[in-house]
Structure prediction request, 518 residues.
Amino acid sequence: MTFAVLIYTKPGTYEALDEAELRSITSEYMAIREAPGCVGGGQLAPVETATTVRVREGETLITDGPFANTKEVFGGYYLFEADDLDTVLEIAKRCPAARMGGSVEVRPLVQVPAAAEAGA
Amino acid sequence: MIERVFREHWSRVLAYMIGLLGDFDLAEEATQEAFAIASARWARDGQPANPLGWLTATARNRAIDTLRRERTLATKLALLDAQASPPADTDEQMSDTSIPDERLELIFACCHPALSQEARVALTLRALGGLGTEQIARAFLVSEQTMKRRLTRAKAKIKATGIPFAVPPDHLLGERLAAVLAIVYLIFNEGYGGHAELAGEALWLARALAELMPDEPEAHGLLALVLLHDSRRQARVRDGELVLLEDQDRSLWDAGQIEQGRTALARALALHGDGPYVLQAQLAALQSEQPIDWHEALAVHERLAALTRSPVVELSRAVAVAQAGSAEAALEIAEGLALEDYQYLHSTRAELLRRLGRIREAQDAYRRALELTRDEPERRFLQRRLAELRAQPEGAPG
Prediction:
């Protein structure tokens, strides 16, 4: 199965860190990228860079900023191939955001039936 | 008779089928069909020599039939065929030794923390206890439709999110076992609160866990705890009114259950158990003695409070402090707890204040407890205590 590990950070977390702390957090995230089963991932640029697009009745609305103001900001993700949820929950636990006021959401990707058959 | 056999084998057969098929729904359907066939056949022809083997073989054959009908599941069928060629007739049995016991895998899947607590409870009662949807619905006062949806959603989540059908690895076992025990204890407490059939279920589950994990002290601790509490069921209520431990008619206690509880506790202690269930079971065992050794109880409470850091446990420590001799020290502990909306904080404070002769404050505390209580027998109990206070003069320790 493929799982998405979605990382939500508490705004202001990184700003509060000094350079050494920031380096150590970054290396933790890098290590997870190298973990067995990791097939992808990426870090998003800060939320200030977000642009939101909506199409309503044929009209495109482009606005500055994220689509919602929330207490936690989507900051990045990994994709993991794993046999079961527990393996991925262990990975999620290791994400610094999980212990730094943010949270980490684990969700399986929908399996395309044809691909699932071929893989079995 | 057939019912007892069913009860014992339901979870074994279901667990085996889930292990085989990797699909909760399909496994449940096949198991259900096998039990329905058995129910008709056994009533007529008598029970086979090896009921578990019979039921398992039949469930397997039912699953194969279903899979044959649904061609899209061809890959799974291949898997089944590859395992071993199934018996041509359901009367051909599987020997018990060829049927792995996968009930533990099933329990850990049903109590996985990725499921909501409601779902875990319902699924555990269904899969392990073999209760029907309508029975579970009745016990939790929801409609059968609601319970059916809850179970369906839970099974779908297990499948879609890859909740493992496995006993957790060592580094996860502690926290996952705690989650399993918590669900069983929750079911027991629902039963203790009135739904007697649930208490019976919890006892059965606790027994199964202790049997399946013979080296886990907390599993024996939980079994001891529920046995010791359950032994007082008959004495706990008199004419619809709650009876406090010290006022209970001890002849109504179930001596057999107390004995079994003590045996389970001894086993837990022999395994060097000192977790929360073992400690609570120790307290329950101490309460079953006459007279109660409150100093010993206080020592156990202190260990439990240090372990759990729960204010509710602190409150019962306060009660032990009072019983061991110092209502004043007990009150001091109780006053420091952040349990403003917890009825038992106020009823405990009330009792302590009464003992110290602070009658007006005791009355206020009883009134606050009454505001927070929804349970009818408990309300009446508190009202009685409040009425008794009117006879006691201020400043006279009771």
